[in-house]
Fold this protein.
Amino acid sequence: MPEIPLVPAHWRFPAHPTSVRRARQAVAESLPYGLHSRLGDDLGLLTSELVTNAIRHGACREDEDFIELVLWPADGHYWLAVSDPGTGKPELVRPETDSESGRGLILVDSLATAWTVRPRPTRGTSVIAGLPFRQFG
């Protein structure tokens, strides 16, 4: 008999800056008890960066649009997908030294084992990033 996978955690938040903290807290609270704190910190940072980018670059109307998060364990990783209604494709770029923004995907790239951008079947874009949990503990 095959092993039955866990049901992914799923949230929807308004495309508003206050949702970044709420999303980070929701992800942290969904992790199993006893999981090494570094995984929670790294997932929190990934969540903050991806949700911030989705709000800034993927949402059109903060009073109408939503950001969706899905978190699930698979293949020795915790995978986080952050989706927004936008059609743009986030790209990894190196900002100018004195730039005050533009480093979010650099952090994602350095933390995640793998990450990608995928169009959603109906509307929008998802950024998916994975953190290994086998390296902790």
Strands lie at 9-14, 66-74, 77-84, 114-119, 125-132. The longest strand covers residues 66-74. Residues 9-132 form a domain with the Heat Shock Protein 90 fold (CATH 3.30.565.10). DSSP finds three helices and five strands in the chain.
